[in-house]
Write a structure and sequence with these properties.
Number of helices: 19
Distance between the termini: 23 Å
Structural class: mainly alpha
CATH superfamily of the largest domain: MFS general substrate transporter like domains
Number of strands: 0
Largest sheet: none
Number of domains: 2
Shape: globular
Order of helices and strands: HHHHHHHHHHHHHHHHHHH
CATH class of the largest domain: Mainly Alpha
CATH topology of the largest domain: Growth Hormone, Chain: A
């Protein structure tokens, strides 16, 4: 379904070229340059977030060995990061309207890069949990702040950009995972690696953040927002549930894809790793194409269609009961989920009468709660039935995503009735 020319939130497709030419011709040159620099600043922060987030994962086995942890003890310690993230997101609902996303991004980016090296210096499980909790808190607050800034940049540019920003985050995770593995192979410690990666990233991204744009909020919106979010108004709640379902599927895929391929499907270890690789690859490809897709099609049309691909493809992968079918199923899942979180965050930031920072923080906290719940939920179901049956939760959730994204008013035009 093509966007009608009356689409609100961004300029109509039919007149996009003319509008762009008029905007460039009439807007002050410094405003055009500011918009461009603010976009690159946001890209740099998304890349940095993903890079540091993924680069430490290759060191987890070494940390486990160094601290002589059991699997259970390691699992408890690793909960520090997501718990810290969700806690910080809740706190950010109060801080973002007061300080703005630009200030929050700069402060959280500094803390994120500074605390990362400390994770590698811990000497006990409680210290590891504490370090991860603090690091996760900066990580979560930076996540909400950079998404809030992304909404402001979208409004300044007058077209969808959120999917591209999240695609850059995925590129950062790819690079971080590879550099982390290289660091382990060369004997580089986690602390040294985080310093080597974090300091240049902090200098470059920190310098660029000076060009970020102000949030599109007013004091009146901020006061009204506090009351409405505390009551979890229906639009915020619906978007939060969609984010929860999507990120629950993401978390389950991250932890169980290789286990499923290696166990029930009896693939080799090398092939088993291709399940999550296929998921990540298709997600990056769709996210990098997402800006154009969201200009051409309504979110309420493209999101259900992609989620339907995930549902059908993943069901076929489970029924196929072969390695190649399983890998293809996870690839379809990546296609279906790629645009859900970016579009939901963008829609949350445009709900009328609400502060973007507060609504994004609320929806993001719901999503991360799903990401944390996904792996243990699948594990518990697998212990009762089988892993193949437990993974059947994923197509059930993607079916719910198909219906909810098609019916949610906030996703009908991605602008909530406001013109940027």
């Amino acid at each position: 379904m093509r966007r009608p020319t009356t689409w609100t939130g961004y300029e109509p497709q039919a007149s996009k070229c003319c509008v762009s030419e008029v905007a460039v011709a009439t807007a002050p040159l410094n405003q055009v340059v500011t918009d461009r620099w603010s976009r690159w600043a946001t890209v740099a922060v998304f890349l940095t977030h993903g890079l540091l987030f993924a680069s430490w994962t290759a060191h987890i086995p070494l940390i486990k060995e160094h601290l002589d942890l059991t699997d259970g003890a390691l699992g408890l310690a690793l909960l520090g990061a997501p718990l810290g993230s969700v806690s910080a997101m809740v706190v950010s609902t109060r801080l973002l309207p007061r300080f703005g996303s630009k200030t929050m991004v700069r402060a959280c980016l500094l803390g994120y890069c500074a605390v990362g090296p400390l994770v590698g210096l811990v000497g006990s499980p409680p210290a590891l949990f504490t370090a991860l909790f603090v690091w996760g808190a900066f990580q979560g607050a930076l996540d909400v702040s950079m998404n809030t800034q992304a909404v402001a940049v979208e409004r300044a540019r007058g077209r969808p950009l959120m999917s591209g920003f999240h695609g850059c985050w995925s590129i950062g995770t790819f690079a971080g995972a590879g550099l982390g593995a290289l660091g382990v192979a060369t004997g580089l410690s986690l602390s040294s690696q985080q310093l080597v990666l974090g300091m240049p990233a902090l200098i470059i991204a920190g310098w660029l953040t000076a060009r970020m744009v102000p949030d599109a909020t007013t004091p009146a919106d901020d006061r009204a927002d506090g009351d409405r979010v505390r009551r979890l108004s229906r639009p915020v709640l619906v978007l939060g549930v969609i984010a929860f379902a999507s990120m629950l599927c993401e978390g389950a895929s991250a932890d169980w894809a290789s286990v499923y391929l290696r166990g029930p499907l009896h693939t080799t270890p090398a092939v088993a790793g291709l399940g999550y690789a296929a998921f990540s690859f298709t997600m990056v490809v769709v996210r990098l194409s997402g800006n154009r897709l969201l200009i051409r099609f309504r979110p309420a049309s493209i999101l259900p269609a992609l989620a339907a691909i995930a549902t059908i493809g993943f069901c076929a992968g489970l029924v196929g009961n072969r390695g190649i079918a399983g890998i293809a199923g996870f690839g379809c899942l990546g296609i279906g989920l790629a645009l859900i979180v970016p579009t939901v965050f963008s829609a949350a930031g445009r709900l009328p009468g609400l502060s973007p920072g507060t609504t994004i923080a609320t929806v993001s906290a719901c999503g991360w709660f799903g990401f944390v719940c996904g792996p243990p939920l699948i594990g518990q179901l697998a212990s009762v039935a089988s892993l193949s049956v437990a993974l059947g939760v994923i197509p059930l959730l993607t079916t719910c995503i198909v219906l909810s994204t098609a019916l949610t008013p906030a996703l009908r035009d991605n602008g909530a009735g406001e013109r940027s």
